[in-house]
Amino acid sequence: MALEFTKSTDEEHKIELEPVLVYANWNVGLAIGGQTASLEVGTSFVGFGAPIKIKGESEKGKKLGKIEGKVKGDKFVGELPIPEDIELDDQVYFEVKLPKNGLSGESNWIPAVPPISVTNFKWSASEARRGDILTLSANIEGLRDQTE
Questions:
Q1: Are 35 and 116 in contact (CB under 8 A)?
Q2: What CA–CA distances, in Å, run from 135 to 91, 121, 126?
Q3: Tens place of pLDDT for every residue, the chain, 148 residues?
Q4: What is the chain's alpha carbon radius of gyration, rounded to the nearest angstrom?
Q5: String of DSSP letters for 131-145
Q6: Residues 6+ apart with CB under 8 A from 5
Q7: Does the pTM exceed 0.85?
Q8: What would you measure as the largest C-alpha separation in the chain, in angstroms?
Q9: Residue 100 and residue 68: Cα distance in Å, rounded?
Q10: Which DSSP symbol is given to 3?
């Protein structure tokens, strides 16, 4: 944001600074169902304690919840819950509104995955001796095929 000042420097002048929504980002790279995902909003010149409203949603229309708070030090940090029934490969984002400043915007989008479920653990043998090679197997749900 460029600010040019061309008035005399030997007298007092009043200038008005425009509020700006600088960024709205997730602090995580993946939204996991059943957990919360951290987010951050950066601003300039909105004022300490400016009210902020955040609403989360997924590309497929799943609601993530709402947060209301106040901007402190030109930042707001919060968390949105990710629903357990989120679908694999859905994308999540949040909308930001700063009502007193007339600002709004949208965050970056991140992929979502349902909670990972691991059940039915089994070893290939009930007993083993030093040097034996055993295999551990389990049923895993909530991951793409071929995930290591």
A1: no
A2: 35, 10, 11
A3: 566 777 777 888 787 889 999 999 999 999 999 999 999 999 999 999 999 999 999 999 999 999 999 999 999 999 999 998 888 889 999 999 999 999 999 999 999 988 888 899 999 998 999 999 999 999 988 777 777 7
A4: 24
A5: T----EEEEEESS-T
A6: 13, 15
A7: no
A8: 89
A9: 13
A10: -
